[in-house]
Amino acid sequence: xxxxxxxxxxxxxxxxxxxxxxxxxxxxxxxxxxxxxxxxxxxxxxxxxxxxxxxxxxxxxxxxxxxxxxxxxxxxxxxxxxxxxxxxxxxxxxxxxxxxxxxxxxxxxxxxxxxxxxxxxxxxxxxxxxxxxxxxxxxxxxxxxxxxxxxxxxxxxxxxxxxxxxxxxxxxxxxxxxxxxxxxx
Length: 185
Prior knowledge:
Elements: H1 6-30, E1 34-36, E2 42-44, H2 50-71, E3 72-76, E4 91-96, E5 111-115, E6 123-131, E7 135-139, H3 149-152, E8 155-156, E9 160-169, E10 175-176
Antiparallel strand pairs: 1-2, 3-4, 4-9, 5-6, 5-9, 6-7, 7-8, 9-10
């Protein structure tokens, strides 16, 4: 237990809070984002408290991060089965299927990531050729180098993890992955 009076403690903590605010506003001011209004009232350029900016930015960033961790998957392409569309080493973002009628609906012509029906620990990237009631026919764009539904038949739609929608590496080829107008044959 401290011998200091409670009022003194509050004043010390208040000074520490003011110092923290001062440092924060000076950092933001250096970036041209804030200005001190007075010693007690440190505000951002449009009269908003600095804490409001932090909360206004931090909360959405954390919410988006939590959603992204659940809804997206990153993966790297291995092998030549999807040439010329995808090359070995390309890195993709995949929108996970989150359940019936939720977000990532798969259509004919889409690039999908699915569990290999013959090697469960392995993932495959293929193009959807046909959709059945509870199954999907998939094929690689490079038929000569692809192991696909021609080899293992139609796969259960439950094996489809999601739709590949964006290539982020290599940066020269980065961009959205589009659905083929007609399935490659």
